[in-house]
Amino acid sequence: MTGMRIGIVTDCYPPHMGGIETQTYNLAQRLKAAGHSPEVITATRDGSFVGRRIEDQIPVHRLGMPTIGFTPMNPFAAPLFRAIFPRFDLLHVHVGVLSPFAHLALQVAAQGNIPTLATFHCELSTWAPIMRASGFFDRWAEAGVLFSGVSSLMNSQINQVLQPRNRRNWPIIPNGVDTNFWAPNESAAQIDGKAPQEKNSGGMPAESSNLGGASSFEAVSAIRLMPRKRPLALIKFTETINDLLGERGNFSLKVFGEGALRPLLRRQPAVTAGQVSLPGREDAAGLLKTYRQADLFITLCLHESFGIAAAEARASGLPVIVRSQSPITDFINDGMTGITAGSDQELAEKTAAALLDGSIRKMQKNCQQQPCPVSWERCLAATFAAYRETQSRSAR
Predict the structure, then answer these.
(1) Do 273 and 254 fall into the same domain?
(2) Could you please report the per-residue DSSP string of 47-90?
(3) 234 contacts 225 by C-beta, under 8 angstroms
(4) What is the rounded CA–CA span in Å between residue 206 and residue 211?
(5) Residues 311, 205: contact at Cβ < 8 Å?
(6) Cα 16 to chain center, whole Å?
(7) Distance between CA atoms of residues 376 and 241, nearest Å
(8) Rounded-to-integer distance, Cα 230 and Cα 223, Å
(9) What angle do CA 128, 129, 134 make, to 5 degrees?
(10) DSSP for 152-211, written as a single string
(11) How far is Cα 112 from Cα 149, in angstroms, rounded to an integer?
């Protein structure tokens, strides 16, 4: 694909930090490295600056208004869009349900017949009946905008917000993960100058594998401590695992992250007893260090569009324990690179069995030896395929 001028439109962008912010920043960098000319158009302000400037070699148009709480928005940006958009060969708009800046950009792009790809990053099912009845997204699909989602779950949810006449198999553009950074590497386990610990057949460091005849297992999770991420369910899951293991094993969980539920979580018996620890927020290097000493990664969230933390854990060589309703199953094979089940109880039973019979160690080896199915290479390949389809759809 020859070099194109690509406008990346997003409500959220650094210095705000989050999933969409990280993805759009890295996408711009990767597109530039591939020979394209990306520019970012965002409602996120950086201090008091408004306008266009070069940031990390990428032109960034910051068009946000001063708002309470620094909410990224500008309902009056349409004239600015009309002035900026014609310079691009293609627009790539990153959308959530509550993305007024991106929604306005889609409206202007559709009116101007600009080839436009919209990637949905957030769950849509809650709002689907309202959106479908209003025709909110139908008008953009009928104007030639190509929709895409970050997972197979999002693909089906896009169709839920559309009238039947506009439903189709939309492209999937998975989030990118820097697999070079996260890749399992035994020599890299010497982060603190320590040699990597030898693992036993159960997957644990040999020196801690026997405490009075019981194996010790360490799990990790990285989530926001908010209700929709189900941190209380994670604590209950840990208690259930220990009940199932009995005297045959000890199971502990570290939950990285911050959020409104932290005070409540700290009072839970499993936390005060030390079965579950809450270290707080950690950067990527700190998470990687922990992942290389852990046995598995767990998330019980049922309402997410992709699962970037789980993807990073999988890329680091950890089996991922997840509910079967999650889009994380796009890159996890049950019994091979992780464990899936339809309920928390069934998932705990399958996990305890895998810990006791040693199959979790086989999953670890699979995760370390098999290529990670989430990577920036895969993301860019899917992105470029969607760009070609967007241009072809616009031409028709």
Answers:
(1) yes
(2) TTB-EEEEETTEEEEE-PPP-GGG----TT-HHHHHHHGGG-SE
(3) no
(4) 11
(5) no
(6) 16
(7) 35
(8) 9
(9) 100
(10) HHHHHHHHHTS-GGG-----B-PPP--HHHHS--GGGG-TTS-PPPPB-TTSSBGGGS-B
(11) 23
Chain segment 100-140, per-residue pLDDT in tens:
999 999 999 998 889 999 999 988 888 888 889 998 899 99
Instruction: Return the structure tokens found at 249.
Output: 């094993």
* Lowest model confidence (mean pLDDT) among 80-84, 117-121, 185-189, 351-355: 185-189
CA 265 distance to own-chain centroid:
24
pLDDT computed for residue 201 by the predictor: 37
Instruction: Please state, rounded to an integer, the average pLDDT across all residues of the chain.
Output: 90
**pTM metric for this prediction:** 0.86
pLDDT at 187 exceeding the cut of 90 = no
Structural domain span for residue 56: 5-176+376-395
Q: Quote the number of domains for the chain.
A: 2
350/213 same-domain check: yes
Q: Which residue has the tokens 């040999």?
A: 206
